[in-house]
Design goal:
The protein is α/β, with parallel strands linked by helices and 345 residues long. Helix content is 51%, strand content 12%. It has a five-stranded parallel beta sheet, with helices on both faces. It has a two-stranded antiparallel sheet with strand order 4-5. The C terminus is likely disordered.
């Protein structure tokens, strides 16, 4: 709806990860540097972590877009609760091979043969595992075993593991993951964007859909957006999408701080009948009314901020659930497709 009002060619703040909208913020630029370093090393594991909504999947898909397909074959799996053998089947399928076999040995032989063929043609194999925090320690050990495939002194498979913060903590504390830990050559944790980067992020996304300075975001609007989202990309996209919708409905061409506060209040009203899901630390302290019976403006702002946070948390939970469902369906379809091929072992 708002696309036609603002003459945009698409939705600039969609929640679905899209490498076309990749924005090279300070933290994402550093992450890409580590990933590039890993590619140059040609071995070991690179670990990238980040909280929900910080742009991990967009980063990985951007990396895939930059790879020279004559030099690399790349595959990505999105992990769910996989056993070690199920993980192996997912890896085999991700590289376009038949994942059906009578035993694990056949799968390993099939994958190794494929990797050696690619190596002889001058291609290196890269595997990216997204949502790696869902992998069991046994599955992670299987990943380490796959890194043992070599041609001379060259590794045949390199892996990047991408997950939420608890994944890095487990990697570096679990005694049974010591051997994998020794093969980690670099790690990076994605942080929210800095306040100074926010205006550039908004403009970058708008320009990709044909924006011609309509609407215009004022400085106090950008300040308000940062205050309510803390620089987390998915939260930014959620809020900015609603801002554009509000602007179109109200025929607003200049988005200022008051506009943002109106949208925040509107989003908060969506959850007033819902039990809050945010942690107790987000609950503001009780505020006493003034002598005239009114509540201070700053108290109203705090209340709106809390309700906005509750709404965002609920949306993130819903999106994560939907993502998990889509990932499981994708894996199921991959396995079904693999079942129709002949065994080449």
């Amino acid at each position: 709806m708002y696309e036609s009002f603002y003459n945009l060619q698409g939705r600039p703040f969609q929640l679905t990860p899209d490498p076309r909208f990749y924005f090279s913020s300070r933290t994402h630029k550093k992450a890409m540097a580590y990933l590039t370093y890993g590619l140059n090393q040609g071995e070991g594991f690179i670990i990238v972590t980040g909280d929900i909504g910080t742009g991990k999947t967009t980063l990985v898909r951007h990396l895939f877009d930059t790879l020279d397909r004559n030099e690399f074959i790349a595959a990505m799996i999105v992990s769910t609760q996989l056993s070690a053998e199920d993980l192996l089947r997912s890896v085999v399928a991700a590289f376009g091979l038949d994942a059906q076999a009578d035993d694990k040995g056949q799968l390993l032989a099939r994958l190794e043969r494929h990797l050696r063929e690619q190596f002889r043609m001058g291609r290196r194999a890269l595997l990216v595992v997204d949502e790696a925090q869902n992998l069991s320690n046994a599955a992670l050990e299987e990943m380490r075993m796959l890194s043992n495939f070599q041609e001379g002194d060259k590794a045949l498979l390199q892996s990047f593991l991408v997950g939420q913060p608890e994944f890095r903590e487990r990697i570096f504390t679990a005694p049974e993951l010591e051997q994998l830990r020794q093969r980690v050559i670099a790690t990076h944790h994605l942080e929210p964007m800095d306040k100074e980067e926010l205006a550039g992020y908004i403009e970058h996304r708008l320009k990709l859909v044909g924006w011609d300075n309509d609407p215009c975001f004022t400085a106090d609007a950008v300040e308000a957006i940062y205050r309510h989202t803390a620089g987390v990309p998915r939260r930014l996209n959620t809020l900015c999408s609603r801002v554009l919708l509000f602007g179109a409905l109200e025929e607003v061409h200049t988005i200022d701080g008051d506009t943002i506060e109106s949208v925040v209040a509107d989003m908060a009203s969506d959850t007033r009948q819902v039990t809050p899901t945010s942690s107790a630390r987000l609950t503001p302290p009780p505020v006493s009314p003034r002598n005239d019976g009114t509540v201070p403006l700053e108290a109203k702002t705090d209340k709106n901020a809390k309700e906005m946070q509750d709404r965002i948390n609920q949306l993130e939970t819903m999106m994560k659930s939907q993502d998990e469902t889509l990932k499981r369906l994708t894996e199921l379809m991959t396995n079904l497709a693999g079942g129709g091929k002949k065994d080449d072992s």
